[in-house]
User: Which sequence fits this backbone?
């Protein structure tokens, strides 16, 4: 347990605004533990990034992200990796980054973890100069995000309908991949470089990924029929799909993706880069609070 000087950055829209339910308990525990803290409630993603970026100069040694993966991702972009620690209270719908901690996904358990935890060093991915914690891919992840951006109304908020619409559009992409010097040139349904094991709210996309080994787990799903792809979706949730003959798992620290035309990539639930993309890793660069 450490006494910390923390900024608590809350996403007021995450989890239908339920941060108000946990705030009294969080403050009670932080006071009891002798923490100094300030609460910030940014109104948009730019303000979130800015609050994280300016927090080190203001003297905070810890940033607590109270929100979903989007909030964590925005904070990671602004955190001082050498000098600050990151705590997470999962209030979102996916919470895949919090899943790294192997703790029950529950705000009360997360508060206990925060107060009692110490710094656990984990790797940070870099894609075209931008930080990521979870995954960077082309396929179901990027296509779901593109479909969500293009969709309006009820379907946009319904993950099952979005997912079905994504599957209906999914087609193989010709990608030239270089992984630590090895070149793989083929057509793929999904290629994804993983720092974490999970994506999409608990899909076990990289069952063997280790968070602090200085390597990314590259999951390559080769061209297959759409019918077979849909059929294997349940096994992606369980992680058993990696045994299929169309799937290759590689560990590498330097990866490039090149496509025939620029292709948007899904990175931690966002679409911030297009191919060609260069991915590397900063070993054990982030201090995540874990008890
Ligand atoms: Mg790893």
Assistant:
């Amino acid at each position: 347990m450490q006494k910390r000087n923390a900024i608590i950055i809350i996403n007021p829209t995450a989890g239908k605004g339920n941060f108000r339910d946990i705030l009294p308990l969080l403050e009670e525990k932080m006071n009891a533990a002798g923490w100094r803290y300030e609460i910030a409630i940014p109104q948009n993603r730019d303000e979130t990034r800015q609050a994280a970026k300016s927090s080190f100069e203001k003297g905070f040694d810890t940033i607590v992200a109270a929100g979903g993966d989007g909030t964590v991702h925005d904070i990671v972009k602004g955190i001082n990796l050498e000098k600050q620690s990151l705590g997470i209270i999962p209030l979102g719908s996916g919470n895949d980054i919090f899943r790294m901690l192997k703790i029950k996904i529950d705000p009360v358990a997360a508060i206990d973890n925060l107060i009692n935890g110490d710094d656990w060093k984990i790797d940070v991915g870099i894609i075209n100069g931008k930080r990521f914690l979870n995954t960077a891919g082309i396929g179901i992840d990027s296509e779901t995000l593109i479909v969500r951006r293009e969709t309006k109304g009820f379907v946009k908020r319904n993950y099952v309908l979005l997912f079905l619409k994504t599957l209906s559009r999914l087609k193989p992409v010709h990608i030239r991949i270089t992984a630590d010097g090895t070149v793989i040139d083929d057509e793929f349904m999904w290629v994804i470089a993983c720092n974490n094991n999970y994506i999409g709210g608990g899909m076990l996309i990289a069952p063997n990924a280790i968070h602090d080994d200085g390597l990314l787990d590259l999951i390559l799903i080769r061209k297959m029929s759409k019918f077979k792809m849909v059929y294997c979706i349940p096994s992606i949730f369980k992680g058993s799909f990696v045994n299929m003959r169309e799937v290759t798992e590689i560990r590498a620290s330097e990866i490039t993706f090149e496509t025939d035309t620029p292709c948007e990539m899904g990175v931690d639930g966002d679409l911030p880069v297009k191919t060609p993309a260069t991915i590397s890793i900063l070993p054990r660069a982030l201090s995540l609070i874990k008890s």
